[in-house]
Structures are given as structure tokens and as C-alpha cells.
Design a protein that fits this description.
Layout (H helix, E strand, L loop, with lengths): L2 H9 L6 H6 L4 H4 L4 H7 L3 H16 L22 H32 L5 H12 L6 E7 L5 H8 L14 E2 L2 E7 L5 E7 L2 H23 L7 H14 L8 H4 L9 H5 L3 E5 L2 H12 E2 L17 E9 L7 E5 L8 H13 E9 L7 H14 L7 E7 L12 H24 L2 H4 L7 E5 L2 H6 L10 H12 L1 H23 L4 H56 L6 H13 L3 E2 L7 E2 H20 L21 H6 L4 H46 L1 H9 L1
Parallel strand pairs: 1-8, 1-9, 3-7, 9-10, 10-11
Antiparallel strand pairs: 2-6, 3-8, 4-5, 4-7, 12-13
Helix pairs in contact: 6-20, 9-10, 20-25, 21-23, 23-25
């Protein structure tokens, strides 16, 4: 067995076949010589056999990439055991090869599209199919952690762009969502600033001034002035208006003179900034992204616009890690502004990977990061599409008195602590039973990284910083190879349809094939319906159990929510009041959120969590509904052998079948999130009358 065969099987999720192929001496040449009879003997299990047949069918469409007629092993994203430099070289080579291949096929399909001049029914179908070949794949990687944990430094290191995102002082924290993606349009660095609407800001402005007024009244009454919400409101107002807000009304603060530098805000359009270098971009976007008004590093900046910003999208040219991946720097627990919070929830729910960033010296004990993970577990799990959760322990090179040690001693000390940290975090993960309901053990991985050492290279080798491991992970997420396979396979189907349409067939023969396909469709549909009914009955039973549990426990849930143990009375009642005013949810800047709706929903979600995860898995190994859709096909082996004279039409039909299954799986993934979240949404809507009742709030606050 050679690297190509091993890597191809691994990338396709067929690791169980590697030993079989190795024992049978299958190399690249014999791999492409495998016939159906050989595959039947080699792979007795139906599931693996179907997956392999689909894989080899697609690979045979692609032209070879070397003079010998064999594909180079570097076409896959690095085989284990090879030096990192060699893997990188092979990966770059394969990426360039596939990019050229994809471009060639796209040009061919473009030429065919241009030739379809008349508006016949067939030409309309072909034009639609060619347009549908273009599918943009984007994997979202959400990055979150407490202020000062090193999120932006981590992103800069992973992308090999030391000066890309503003980082440094602990007192200056990222305050808005930042998305980092590849710039595929030009060679410039770009930043697109998306603002909240003027109407949203006016509403928020009124709330901020109200909070300040209420806080001032409490101060006059000699009440403790440590209210987090009061200080946050003052920081936002001071950032944008300096001290002028203290003497102005809400209406005056909405005057256009305060927004001269950002006319886009008043027009509800985005602002795009273009730069020649990453450093220039970093310097200019600080005022749109970071709460750093009191920081000496930025004393030249007088106006800070981050309170008005909804999101900043940074585009980086020529970066191999961002071909089909977007990194998202997510601030804290969400946002009190409704439009920002809606975007925050949406992004979290769409993340296929989450990086929980925490400092290594307190990785296992750091409560804030664990709290955020607990808060969002259901949103990214059954209510989302997350497949990977990485606990990234940063600043692994921070060693006391390291200047007194030799490089070898420092390195040994760092690596020893790294291993200890991984064990501690692993033990902590094992305690998170509720989170484990949404994810399998394979989803979790721990990294110990040093962004500073990755660039500095003083005490650690690059591999020991573990930044290359995260880079390799992003390379695999990019998965350019599958994009090429999907496009070329679809193009093959279209070409088969065109050639098949030009070959005249006897009407009786066509009718016979149609009847055979229709019969198979009926049988396959019946099989799908049977499986759906089984799943429906299971969910009906689980939900009924959850309803009974809810009836018996809602009183205890409300009591524990309204009167928790070990909580300061005054501080808790302020938090409870905020939750009631905010439709049942209070998100403090630090610590766990209070979510009355989710607490009341928990008996229902607990009853279906495990079944929901197996029915709608995020990992995509077998697909939704326990693989019944993935296994659906009206094209049997016997049918293909019997009707070889219409082979081209059957190839086209098979390609269309695959396209429909991919599209259906995407649709199911999107809709399953809506279904899961509907439980909490329904309870929130039911509770709305209670939240709107001033009498209800008053009674609670008197308890």
C-alpha cells in the first residue's frame, strides 16, 4: 500500500479498510483496476462497500496528475509520520494541481453553457444544472474565551499573520464579533464594518441612559455602586461621546455631527476599508473592534465606534488556511443589543468547530470559559452543527524564572506542564455530563499552544507550540479535494446527459428502463417511510416522558431559579429583574447566564437529547435519519448491468441523485436546528405575558 491509497481511504472516513487494502497489497495502480466483483470480495460490509464505490467512481472521473498515470500521495492533506515541511510542500502542490484541474473543468462547462443558445426544455435543464455545480462551502470556526486569554494572538499565529488582528494589552478587549476569511477577489487586506441600524442604536441609547440614571439614584441613596451594567453603559457612552453624553438627551446624542466619520452608519450601509498590509489594517480597525479608550497604547484615538458596530469582516489575501474556512472571534456571552445578539446566536449555531481558549496556568480551573461552553452546548450541539470542540490552552511558554534555565531545561519544563495540563483538562471534560449528551468523545481535543514562541522560536520548536497542529486541522477543514470531486462528478453527469440525449433509443427500451426505475423508487421510498415511522414513534415516546417529567418538576425548577442557594440576595434579584425584562434571559459579562426559558425546557430536551443526536448527527458519518437517506438509491447493480445501452443516462441520473441527497442533507441540517430550538422558543413565548407583567416582576423582587 502506498500513501495515496492510505490517505484517500482516511479522508473518506474508511479507516477500517486500510488494513484490508494493506494486506491485499493494493497500491495506486491496482486501486484504479478494482472492479465490482473485486470490491464485493474485498469489502463484505454493505455500508463500507457503498461508500467505497461512490469514492472510486468519483476518483475515476479525475485525470491523473503525474506522467506515470498515478496520483501523487501529496494530493491528500499530509500523511502521518512525514516531516511537517514535507507535508506542507505536498499539500501546496496538490492544492495547486486541483485548482488547475477545477479551473479546466469549469472553463469546459462555461463553454458548454455558452453553446446552449435556444430555449428548448433540455437546454433549460442543462443550464440550471451547470449553474448548480457552483457550491460555496464555508466552515465556521468559533473562537471564544475570557479577556486576555490570547484569542487574537492565537488567530494571528495560526494564520501566520503576526500583525493582523489588534492584540496586546489585557485592558483592551475585543468588543465586537470579528470574522476572518480569505480574500478571493484581489491581493489587498480588507475590513468590512457592518453597523447596527440607527434605530437600534437609538433604542440602546435610551436604555443606556436609563441605566446610568438608575445607577446615579442608587449612589445617592448610599447603595453599592459596583453594578456591572452601570459601568458597561458608562464605558459605551464615553467611548463614542467622551463626556458630552452626561449633559445631553437621547435625541441630542443622535445628531449627525457625532457620526461625521461614519456616514455609512446613518445610511445603514457597511464601510469597507482597503489596506496594503496586515499591520495597516490592524492599526485602523482598533476603534471599530476594541474597548481600549483608557489604554495608553491608543491615546491618539479620540473617537471609538465599536458600540455602533455589529460585526467586522477581515479578508486576508493568499492564505491557504482560509480557502473555505472562516474564523470568528466571538466576544463573551452574547450581547445586550438585540441585533448583535441575534447574529451571535446565529454564528454559534453555524460553527462546525469551536475553540475554547483559556490560559494554560488555570486551564482546568478557569470557570468563565467552562461556563460559556455550558451555556452554548445545546446551541452548538443538537441545536447547531458543531463537530469539533477544541480546548486551546494558551501561553504555554509562560514559565517563571525561565531566564535562569538553559533552552533544553526550559523546553523540558514547558512540555512537562503541557502534558499535565492536557490530563487536567481531560478530567474536567469527563465531568461535563450534560455537554456529553450533545457530543461524542471524539469531538473533544486539547491543545497546548504558544503563539509568541511560534513566531519567536527561542525556547520551542514550531511543532512543540502546537500551532502547526491547528493549521493542519484547518487545512483538512478546507477540504479542497472534495470540492473538486463534487464539481467534476457533477460535470460528468451533465456531459453524460448531453451525450445520452444525442443517442436515439427504442421507445420500448426506454419504457422498460423507466418502469424498472419506478419500481425501485417505490421500494426505496417505502423503506425510507418505514424508518421514518420508527423514528417518529421513538420521539413521540421520549417527548411524552419529557412532558410528564415537566409537569412533576416545573415547580422545583422555578423555585431553584427564583431562590437559588448560596447567592447574594440583592445582587441576585437585580440579575433576576434583568432576566425578566429581557424575555427570560440575563447574560452577565462574566459567569453563567440566567435563562428561565431554558431551565423550564430542560425536562423536554433532556428526554430527547441522545436520540436527537443519533438521528441528526453533526459528524456526518452516516447522515441524518440513521443513514436511510444516504443509503437511498434507485440504481441497483443489477439494473446497471442489464441496461448497459443506456449507461450514459443512468450515470446522469446517478449524479443527480447524489446532488439531491447532498442538498437534502444540508436542508435537514438547517431545519433540525429550528426544530430543536423550537422547544425553548415556545416556552419563551408562553412565558411572555408573565415577563410583561409589572405586578409579576414586583412580586418576585419582594420575595
Amino acid at each position: 500500500m502506498d500513501d495515496f491509497v492510505r490517505d484517500t481511504l482516511a479522508q473518506a472516513g474508511l479507516n477500517d479498510l486500510i488494513k484490508v487494502f494493506k494486506d491485499e497489497g493494493i497500491d495506486t495502480e491496482t486501486f484504479y483496476m478494482l472492479q465490482d466483483a473485486d470490491i464485493e470480495k474485498l469489502i463484505p460490509k454493505m455500508g463500507s462497500r457503498l461508500k467505497f464505490k461512490k469514492l472510486i467512481r468519483r476518483l475515476k472521473v479525475l485525470p491523473s496528475t503525474s506522467d506515470t498515470g498515478k496520483r501523487k500521495s501529496g494530493q491528500q492533506l499530509g500523511s502521518k509520520g512525514q516531516p511537517a515541511a514535507k507535508r506542507k510542500c505536498e499539500t501546496n502542490s496538490s492544492t495547486e494541481t486541483e485548482a488547475k484541474m477545477l479551473n479546466t473543468v469549469r472553463n469546459t462547462m462555461g463553454d458548454i453553457y455558452a453553446m446552449l443558445q435556444d430555449d428548448s426544455d433540455l437546454n433549460k435543464i442543462l443550464k440550471t444544472k451547470i449553474k448548480n455545480l457552483e457550491t460555496e462551502k464555508k466552515e465556521l470556526v468559533g473562537v471564544f474565551g475570557k479577556t486576555g486569554a490570547g484569542k487574537t494572538s492565537l488567530i494571528n499565529a495560526v494564520l501566520k499573520e503576526k500583525n493582523l488582528l489588534p492584540s496586546g494589552s489585557v485592558s483592551a478587549c475585543t468588543s465586537v464579533m470579528i470574522k476572518v476569511e480569505g480574500n478571493r477577489q484581489n491581493e489587498k487586506y480588507e475590513a468590512e464594518i457592518e453597523f447596527i441600524s440607527p434605530e437600534d442604536w437609538e433604542d440602546e441609547l435610551g436604555s443606556l441612559l436609563s441605566i446610568i440614571k438608575k445607577g446615579n439614584q442608587e449612589t445617592e441613596d448610599n447603595v453599592d455602586d459596583s453594578d456591572e451594567e452601570h459601568h458597561d453603559a458608562a464605558d459605551k457612552l464615553s467611548a463614542l461621546y467622551e463626556d458630552e453624553w452626561k449633559e445631553k438627551s437621547c435625541e441630542q446624542l443622535m445628531e449627525t455631527k457625532y457620526f461625521k466619520e461614519i456616514p455609512e452608519f446613518l445610511c445603514s450601509t457597511s464601510k469597507t476599508l482597503v489596506f496594503e498590509s496586515a499591520k495597516d489594517l490592524s492599526t485602523d480597525i482598533v476603534k471599530y473592534t476594541r474597548d481600549a479608550a483608557k489604554n495608553e497604547d491608543y491615546d491618539k484615538i479620540k473617537k471609538w465606534y465599536w458600540p455602533l458596530v455589529k460585526c467586522v469582516t477581515v479578508r486576508v489575501p493568499d492564505n491557504p488556511f482560509l480557502q473555505h474556512v472562516t474564523l470568528v472571534d466571538l466576544p463573551g456571552n452574547g450581547d445586550r443589543n438585540k441585533s448583535r445578539d441575534t447574529m451571535w446566536k446565529g454564528i454559534f449555531g453555524d460553527c462546525s468547530t469551536v475553540w475554547v481558549v483559556t490560559e494554560i496556568n488555570r486551564a482546568a480551573a478557569e470557570q468563565e470559559s467552562w461556563d460559556i461552553l455550558k451555556n452554548v452546548a445545546s446551541q452548538i450541539g443538537n441545536g447547531g452543527e458543531c463537530r469539533h470542540i477544541h480546548i486551546v490552552c494558551t501561553k504555554s511558554d509562560d514559565i517563571d524564572d525561565s531566564h535562569e534555565l538553559t533552552k533544553a531545561e526550559t523546553q523540558a519544563l514547558i512540555l512537562k506542564r503541557n502534558a499535565k495540563a492536557k490530563l487536567s483538562v481531560g478530567k474536567e471534560l469527563n465531568k461535563l455530563d450534560k455537554i456529553k449528551k450533545h457530543f461524542s468523545d471524539e469531538c473533544f481535543q486539547v491543545f497546548t499552544v504558544s503563539s509568541r514562541e511560534f513566531f519567536r522560536k527561542r525556547d520551542l520548536n514550531p511543532e512543540d507550540t502546537e500551532i502547526p497542529k491547528l493549521q493542519e486541522f484547518l487545512q483538512n477543514l478546507n477540504d479542497c479535494h472534495s470540492e473538486t470531486l463534487n464539481y467534476v462528478s457533477g460535470a460528468h453527469g451533465i456531459l453524460s446527459l448531453i451525450h445520452g440525449a444525442n443517442l436515439r433509443k427504442e421507445d420500448d427500451r426506454i419504457k422498460e428502463v423507466f418502469e424498472a426505475l419506478e419500481k425501485n423508487l417505490t421500494l426505496q421510498t417505502k423503506s425510507v417511510n418505514n424508518e421514518m415511522m420508527k423514528i417518529f414513534k421513538v420521539f413521540e415516546e421520549r417527548l411524552q416522558e419529557g412532558v410528564e417529567r415537566s409537569k412533576n418538576s416545573y415547580g422545583n425548577i422555578l423555585t431553584s431559579t427564583l431562590y437559588p442557594r448560596k447567592r447574594d440576595g440583592r445582587g441576585f434579584h437585580k440579575q433576576l429583574k434583568k432576566a425578566v425584562e429581557n424575555e427570560g434571559v440575563c447574560r452577565p459579562k462574566k459567569g453563567r447566564e440566567m435563562n428561565i426559558n431554558m431551565n423550564l425546557t430542560s425536562p423536554l430536551t433532556d428526554s430527547i437529547d441522545e436520540e436527537f443526536r443519533t438521528t441528526f448527527p453533526n459528524d456526518g458519518k452516516c447522515g441524518p435519519f440513521k443513514g436511510v437517506i444516504y443509503g437511498f438509491s434507485i440504481l441497483t447493480k443489477e439494473l446497471k448491468e442489464k441496461y448497459k445501452d443506456v449507461e450514459l443516462q443512468l450515470i446522469s441520473l446517478e449524479s443527480e441523485e447524489e446532488r439531491l441527497k447532498i442538498s437534502l442533507n444540508k436542508s435537514i441540517r438547517k431545519r433540525k436546528k429550528t426544530v430543536y430550538r423550537s422547544l425553548a422558543k415556545t416556552i419563551g413565548e408562553t412565558m411572555q405575558d408573565c415577563y410583561n407583567s409589572k405586578k409579576y416582576i414586583y412580586i418576585m423582587l419582594l420575595q
